[in-house]
Design brief:
Elements lengths: L5 E3 L2 E3 L32 H12 L1 H22 L7 E5 L9 H10 L5 H10 L8 H10 L3 E9 L3 H10 L6 E5 L7 H9 L10 E7 L27 E3 L15
Parallel strand pairs: 3-4, 3-6, 4-5, 6-7
Antiparallel strand pairs: 1-2
């Protein structure tokens, strides 16, 4: 599922998989000239190769992820004070928020191919995504504080069991996982199910104190249009909305190149 940069406090980010799974990996670049990048880079395009290299291999990316989840932990500890356990929740996206799919991207690049739903489904079935740095520790702490964890992902419902198994293999516990239904990809209705308690076996409502994601669409009411708004439009970011970096893909890809 294609689940998806914006600055949050000191945190860079984007991304979350959309209803119609967008392209993973860039389209093949034109035939290289003698001065062009080597074939090892050109199948996926130089821009995609650099974004992937940064995501997989830079110290900065790991620092940002750990920094982001430390910020999230500080914020949720404040927000949870005085609240009865089980009455509140944290919603997290899955891909590039809790699960790192950069190996899938790397394999696409190396094979000179692009994302398809079939290739993505095969990757999900491997249950091989490692954790984003800081994510397991954050989830554990939120649960210790009495919060419920809801994973709201745009992976398909058919991919949900393998997604849950992958999360379990990483020690990431959750109280609900809501994948994309066949008829719609927007997350708002699933956010509402969490708040109303319909996402949980006991049906108890939960106040959502925080959303964590890598795509602007992982946050209620937010779209790419926010980038053109005033700074006040980003008010919840850094407290209730926590963004992680994803320069590989996301809803930002459709923005005009100005």
């Amino acid at each position: 599922m294609r689940l998806g940069p914006v600055l949050v406090v000191v945190v860079l980010a984007v991304g979350c998989r959309s209803a119609t799974p967008p392209r993973l990996g860039a389209p093949p670049s034109p035939a290289p000239s003698p001065a062009a990048p080597s074939p090892a880079v050109s199948p996926g395009g130089r821009e995609m190769a650099d974004a992937l290299h940064w995501f997989r291999n830079s110290a900065e990316r790991r620092a940002i992820a750990l920094q982001t989840y430390r910020l999230a932990t500080d914020q949720i500890e404040r927000a949870a004070r005085g609240r009865e356990p089980g009455t509140w929740a944290v919603i997290l996206d899955a891909d590039e928020t809790v699960l790192d799919n950069s190996t899938y991207e790397k394999e696409l690049l190396e094979q000179g191919t692009t994302h398809t739903p079939e290739r993505w489904a095969a990757w999900v079935a491997r249950k091989a995504s490692p954790a984003i740095p800081g994510a397991p520790a954050f989830v554990r702490r939120a649960r210790e504080l009495g919060g419920r964890i809801a994973i709201v992902s745009n992976r398909t419902e058919a991919e949900c069991p393998d997604t849950g198994a992958n999360l379990a293999s990483l020690g990431v516990s959750y109280d609900a996982i809501l994948c994309r239904p066949p008829d719609r990809g927007e997350k708002g209705p699933r956010f509402e199910k969490v708040a109303r308690g319909e996402a949980f076996p006991d049906g108890r409502p939960a106040e959502v104190l925080m959303w964590v994601g890598d795509n602007i669409q992982d946050f209620p009411g937010a779209t790419q249009a926010i980038r053109q708004g005033p700074e006040d439009a980003f008010g919840p970011f850094g407290t209730r909305f926590i963004v992680l970096p994803n320069p590989m893909y996301g809803s930002w890809e459709k923005n005009p190149r100005e």
